[in-house]
Protein backbone atom coordinates (compact mmCIF):
# COMPACT_ATOMS: atom_id res chain seq x y z
CA UNK A 1 0.00 0.00 0.00
CA UNK A 2 2.79 2.40 0.91
CA UNK A 3 4.61 1.70 -2.40
CA UNK A 4 1.36 1.99 -4.36
CA UNK A 5 0.60 5.30 -2.60
CA UNK A 6 4.10 6.58 -3.34
CA UNK A 7 3.76 5.66 -7.02
CA UNK A 8 0.41 7.41 -7.21
CA UNK A 9 1.98 10.52 -5.66
CA UNK A 10 4.87 10.48 -8.14
CA UNK A 11 2.39 10.10 -11.03
CA UNK A 12 0.26 12.98 -9.75
CA UNK A 13 3.36 15.17 -9.38
CA UNK A 14 4.46 14.30 -12.92
CA UNK A 15 1.03 15.16 -14.30
CA UNK A 16 1.01 18.46 -12.45
CA UNK A 17 4.52 19.24 -13.66
CA UNK A 18 3.54 18.38 -17.23
CA UNK A 19 0.50 20.64 -17.02
CA UNK A 20 2.61 23.46 -15.62
CA UNK A 21 5.13 23.03 -18.42
CA UNK A 22 2.40 23.08 -21.07
CA UNK A 23 0.56 26.07 -19.60
CA UNK A 24 3.49 28.21 -18.59
CA UNK A 25 4.65 29.22 -22.09
CA UNK A 26 1.10 30.30 -22.96
CA UNK A 27 0.90 32.32 -19.79
CA UNK A 28 4.19 33.93 -20.67
CA UNK A 29 2.89 34.80 -24.15
CA UNK A 30 -0.27 36.19 -22.62
CA UNK A 31 1.75 38.41 -20.31
CA UNK A 32 3.82 39.68 -23.22
CA UNK A 33 0.70 40.40 -25.25
CA UNK A 34 -0.80 42.27 -22.34
CA UNK A 35 2.37 44.34 -22.08
CA UNK A 36 2.14 45.20 -25.77
CA UNK A 37 -1.41 46.54 -25.61
CA UNK A 38 -1.46 48.22 -22.24
CA UNK A 39 -2.02 52.02 -22.42
CA UNK A 40 1.42 52.94 -21.11
CA UNK A 41 3.41 50.41 -23.12
CA UNK A 42 6.65 50.87 -25.09
CA UNK A 43 7.31 54.23 -26.77
CA UNK A 44 7.06 52.80 -30.28
CA UNK A 45 3.37 51.85 -29.93
CA UNK A 46 1.44 55.16 -29.93
CA UNK A 47 1.28 55.09 -33.73
CA UNK A 48 -1.13 52.13 -33.45
CA UNK A 49 -3.44 54.04 -31.15
CA UNK A 50 -3.62 56.77 -33.80
CA UNK A 51 -4.47 54.37 -36.60
CA UNK A 52 -1.10 54.25 -38.37
CA UNK A 53 0.26 50.93 -39.59
CA UNK A 54 3.87 51.81 -38.82
CA UNK A 55 5.75 54.46 -36.85
CA UNK A 56 6.95 57.54 -38.70
CA UNK A 57 10.68 57.32 -39.40
CA UNK A 58 12.83 60.01 -37.83
CA UNK A 59 13.75 62.88 -40.13
CA UNK A 60 17.47 63.15 -41.00
CA UNK A 61 19.52 64.96 -38.39
CA UNK A 62 20.67 68.39 -39.52
CA UNK A 63 23.53 70.24 -37.80
CA UNK A 64 22.36 73.09 -35.57
CA UNK A 65 22.08 76.35 -37.47
CA UNK A 66 22.28 74.71 -40.91
CA UNK A 67 19.62 75.96 -43.32
CA UNK A 68 18.93 75.23 -46.96
CA UNK A 69 20.24 77.93 -49.32
CA UNK A 70 17.30 79.82 -50.85
CA UNK A 71 17.24 82.69 -53.30
CA UNK A 72 15.88 86.11 -52.39
CA UNK A 73 13.70 88.16 -54.70
CA UNK A 74 16.20 91.04 -54.59
CA UNK A 75 18.21 93.27 -52.21
CA UNK A 76 16.33 93.86 -48.98
CA UNK A 77 13.62 91.34 -49.93
CA UNK A 78 12.89 88.00 -48.32
CA UNK A 79 12.95 84.62 -50.11
CA UNK A 80 9.58 83.05 -50.89
CA UNK A 81 9.20 79.28 -50.50
CA UNK A 82 6.46 76.87 -51.52
CA UNK A 83 8.80 73.90 -51.10
CA UNK A 84 12.30 73.35 -49.74
CA UNK A 85 15.07 72.34 -52.15
CA UNK A 86 16.24 69.16 -50.41
CA UNK A 87 16.88 65.53 -51.23
CA UNK A 88 15.90 64.46 -47.74
CA UNK A 89 12.75 62.33 -47.82
CA UNK A 90 10.73 64.78 -45.75
CA UNK A 91 7.65 66.96 -46.09
CA UNK A 92 6.65 69.80 -43.78
CA UNK A 93 3.26 70.17 -42.05
CA UNK A 94 1.96 73.70 -41.53
CA UNK A 95 -1.29 75.03 -40.01
CA UNK A 96 -2.79 78.51 -40.30
CA UNK A 97 -4.93 80.91 -38.27
CA UNK A 98 -5.48 79.06 -34.97
CA UNK A 99 -9.25 78.57 -35.02
CA UNK A 100 -9.41 74.91 -34.01
CA UNK A 101 -8.23 74.14 -30.47
CA UNK A 102 -8.82 70.40 -29.98
CA UNK A 103 -6.91 69.02 -26.95
CA UNK A 104 -6.63 65.66 -28.73
CA UNK A 105 -4.61 67.38 -31.44
CA UNK A 106 -2.08 68.30 -28.75
CA UNK A 107 -2.05 64.66 -27.61
CA UNK A 108 -1.38 63.49 -31.16
CA UNK A 109 1.50 65.94 -31.69
CA UNK A 110 3.05 64.82 -28.40
CA UNK A 111 2.59 61.07 -28.81
CA UNK A 112 3.67 60.93 -32.46
CA UNK A 113 6.36 63.58 -31.91
CA UNK A 114 5.24 65.55 -34.93
CA UNK A 115 7.33 68.66 -35.74
CA UNK A 116 4.56 70.96 -36.99
CA UNK A 117 4.57 74.71 -37.66
CA UNK A 118 1.63 76.86 -36.52
CA UNK A 119 1.13 80.21 -38.35
CA UNK A 120 -1.10 82.20 -36.00
CA UNK A 121 -3.43 85.17 -36.54
CA UNK A 122 -4.13 87.15 -33.37
CA UNK A 123 -7.77 87.97 -34.13
CA UNK A 124 -8.52 84.28 -34.83
CA UNK A 125 -6.69 82.85 -31.82
CA UNK A 126 -8.41 85.34 -29.51
CA UNK A 127 -8.18 84.19 -25.88
CA UNK A 128 -6.96 80.73 -26.92
CA UNK A 129 -3.20 81.27 -26.82
CA UNK A 130 -2.89 78.75 -23.97
CA UNK A 131 -3.72 75.94 -26.40
CA UNK A 132 -0.80 76.92 -28.62
CA UNK A 133 1.49 77.29 -25.62
CA UNK A 134 0.74 73.63 -24.89
CA UNK A 135 1.49 72.75 -28.51
CA UNK A 136 4.78 74.59 -28.23
CA UNK A 137 5.75 72.58 -25.15
CA UNK A 138 5.27 69.31 -27.08
CA UNK A 139 7.35 70.38 -30.07
CA UNK A 140 5.28 72.65 -32.34
CA UNK A 141 6.80 75.92 -33.48
CA UNK A 142 4.91 79.22 -33.60
CA UNK A 143 5.12 81.51 -36.63
CA UNK A 144 3.51 84.74 -37.92
CA UNK A 145 0.26 85.02 -39.93
CA UNK A 146 -0.61 88.73 -39.22
CA UNK A 147 -2.80 90.38 -36.61
CA UNK A 148 -6.12 90.46 -38.48
CA UNK A 149 -5.74 88.25 -41.60
CA UNK A 150 -6.09 90.89 -44.36
CA UNK A 151 -5.08 90.30 -47.98
CA UNK A 152 -1.80 92.24 -47.97
CA UNK A 153 -1.20 92.69 -51.69
CA UNK A 154 -1.71 96.33 -52.67
CA UNK A 155 -1.84 97.67 -49.12
CA UNK A 156 0.57 100.53 -48.30
CA UNK A 157 3.83 99.79 -46.54
CA UNK A 158 2.65 101.24 -43.21
CA UNK A 159 -0.43 99.02 -43.13
CA UNK A 160 1.49 95.87 -44.03
CA UNK A 161 4.22 96.61 -41.51
CA UNK A 162 1.63 97.19 -38.76
CA UNK A 163 -0.01 93.81 -39.46
CA UNK A 164 3.27 91.90 -39.55
CA UNK A 165 5.28 93.66 -36.86
CA UNK A 166 2.23 93.87 -34.61
CA UNK A 167 1.89 90.08 -34.63
CA UNK A 168 5.63 89.72 -34.10
CA UNK A 169 5.25 91.72 -30.90
CA UNK A 170 2.16 89.75 -29.80
CA UNK A 171 3.86 86.40 -30.31
CA UNK A 172 7.04 87.60 -28.59
CA UNK A 173 5.04 88.59 -25.51
CA UNK A 174 3.07 85.30 -25.52
CA UNK A 175 5.82 82.79 -26.30
CA UNK A 176 9.08 84.49 -25.36
CA UNK A 177 10.56 84.71 -28.85
CA UNK A 178 9.89 86.34 -32.19
CA UNK A 179 9.00 84.11 -35.14
CA UNK A 180 11.39 83.76 -38.08
CA UNK A 181 8.85 82.72 -40.72
CA UNK A 182 5.83 84.54 -42.15
CA UNK A 183 2.86 83.32 -44.17
CA UNK A 184 0.75 86.04 -45.80
CA UNK A 185 -3.01 85.46 -45.55
CA UNK A 186 -4.46 83.71 -48.62
CA UNK A 187 -0.90 83.34 -49.95
CA UNK A 188 -1.07 86.80 -51.56
CA UNK A 189 1.80 89.30 -51.32
CA UNK A 190 3.82 91.88 -53.24
CA UNK A 191 7.28 93.40 -53.00
CA UNK A 192 6.01 95.68 -50.24
CA UNK A 193 5.14 92.57 -48.22
CA UNK A 194 8.64 91.19 -48.71
CA UNK A 195 10.20 94.45 -47.60
CA UNK A 196 7.89 94.94 -44.59
CA UNK A 197 8.42 91.36 -43.39
CA UNK A 198 12.19 91.79 -43.63
CA UNK A 199 11.98 95.04 -41.66
CA UNK A 200 9.97 93.19 -38.98
CA UNK A 201 12.86 90.76 -38.48
CA UNK A 202 11.51 87.76 -40.40
CA UNK A 203 13.75 85.58 -42.56
CA UNK A 204 11.44 83.94 -45.15
CA UNK A 205 7.95 83.99 -46.64
CA UNK A 206 6.44 80.49 -46.44
CA UNK A 207 3.72 79.49 -48.90
CA UNK A 208 2.87 75.88 -49.83
CA UNK A 209 2.88 73.54 -52.82
CA UNK A 210 0.33 71.09 -51.39
CA UNK A 211 -2.79 71.70 -49.34
CA UNK A 212 -5.22 69.35 -47.63
CA UNK A 213 -8.87 70.36 -47.85
CA UNK A 214 -11.48 70.05 -45.11
CA UNK A 215 -12.59 66.74 -46.65
CA UNK A 216 -9.08 65.29 -46.55
CA UNK A 217 -8.20 65.62 -50.25
CA UNK A 218 -4.80 66.86 -51.43
CA UNK A 219 -4.56 69.69 -53.97
CA UNK A 220 -1.39 70.85 -55.71
CA UNK A 221 -0.60 74.45 -56.68
CA UNK A 222 2.00 73.47 -59.28
CA UNK A 223 4.20 70.54 -60.29
CA UNK A 224 3.29 66.86 -60.17
CA UNK A 225 0.19 65.65 -58.34
CA UNK A 226 2.04 63.61 -55.75
CA UNK A 227 3.95 64.29 -52.55
CA UNK A 228 7.63 64.97 -53.17
CA UNK A 229 10.63 65.52 -50.88
CA UNK A 230 10.69 69.10 -49.63
CA UNK A 231 6.98 69.79 -50.08
CA UNK A 232 5.41 72.29 -47.71
CA UNK A 233 1.87 71.13 -46.93
CA UNK A 234 -0.81 73.51 -45.65
CA UNK A 235 -3.54 71.72 -43.72
CA UNK A 236 -6.83 73.56 -44.23
CA UNK A 237 -7.68 75.45 -41.01
CA UNK A 238 -11.47 75.54 -41.55
CA UNK A 239 -12.90 73.64 -38.58
CA UNK A 240 -16.52 73.84 -39.77
CA UNK A 241 -16.30 71.62 -42.84
CA UNK A 242 -15.49 67.95 -43.26
CA UNK A 243 -12.96 66.27 -41.01
CA UNK A 244 -11.46 67.67 -37.83
CA UNK A 245 -7.92 69.00 -37.96
CA UNK A 246 -6.76 65.90 -36.10
CA UNK A 247 -8.42 63.53 -38.56
CA UNK A 248 -7.12 65.46 -41.55
CA UNK A 249 -3.62 65.22 -40.15
CA UNK A 250 -3.90 61.46 -39.64
CA UNK A 251 -5.15 61.02 -43.20
CA UNK A 252 -2.22 63.11 -44.40
CA UNK A 253 0.27 61.05 -42.40
CA UNK A 254 -0.97 57.88 -44.11
CA UNK A 255 -0.38 59.54 -47.48
CA UNK A 256 3.09 60.62 -46.37
CA UNK A 257 3.95 57.05 -45.35
CA UNK A 258 2.65 55.57 -48.60
CA UNK A 259 4.91 57.98 -50.49
CA UNK A 260 7.95 56.69 -48.55
CA UNK A 261 8.42 60.03 -46.77
CA UNK A 262 8.36 61.34 -43.23
CA UNK A 263 7.73 64.67 -41.49
CA UNK A 264 10.59 67.10 -40.99
CA UNK A 265 10.85 70.30 -38.97
CA UNK A 266 10.56 73.21 -41.37
CA UNK A 267 12.60 75.49 -39.14
CA UNK A 268 15.59 73.10 -39.43
CA UNK A 269 15.70 73.69 -43.18
CA UNK A 270 14.90 77.38 -43.59
Question: Can you walk me through this structure?
Answer:
The chain is an alpha/beta fold and 270 residues long. The protein folds into 2 domains: 1-41; 66-268, Glycoside hydrolase/deacetylase (TIM Barrel). Helices cover 39% and strands 13% of the residues. The protein is built from 8 helices and 10 strands. The strands form 2 sheets. Strands 2, 3, 4, 7, 8, 9 and 10 form a 7-stranded mixed sheet that branches. Strands 1-6-5 form a 3-stranded parallel sheet, with helices on one face. The model is unreliable at 1-41 (pLDDT under 50).
List keywords for this structure.
270 residues, TIM Barrel, 7-stranded mixed sheet, globular
CATH superfamily label of the largest domain: Glycoside hydrolase/deacetylase
CATH architecture name of the largest domain = Alpha-Beta Barrel
Q: What integer value in Å does the Rg equal? A: 27 Å
Strand content: 5-15%
CATH topology tier name of the largest domain: TIM Barrel
* Amount of helix: 25-40%
Distance between termini?
90 Å
> In terms of structural class, how would the helical and strand content be classed?
alpha/beta
Query: Number of domains in the coordinates?
Result: 2
Largest sheet: 7 strands, mixed
Query: What is the mean predicted local confidence, pLDDT?
Result: 84
Number of DSSP strand runs: 10
**Tally the helices: what do you get?**
8
- The CATH class of the largest domain is identified as Alpha Beta
Elements, N to C (H/E) = HHEEHEHHEHEHEEEEHE
Shape: globular
Unreliable runs: 1-41
Oligomeric state of the chains present here: single chain
Amino acid sequence: MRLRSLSAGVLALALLTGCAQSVDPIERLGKKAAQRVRPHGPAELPYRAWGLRAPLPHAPNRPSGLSTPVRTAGPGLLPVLSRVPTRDKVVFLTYDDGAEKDPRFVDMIRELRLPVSMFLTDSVVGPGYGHFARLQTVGATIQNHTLDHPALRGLPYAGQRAEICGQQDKLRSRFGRRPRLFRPPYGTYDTTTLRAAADCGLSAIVLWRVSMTGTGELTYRHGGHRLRPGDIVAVDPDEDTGLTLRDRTLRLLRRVQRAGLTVGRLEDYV
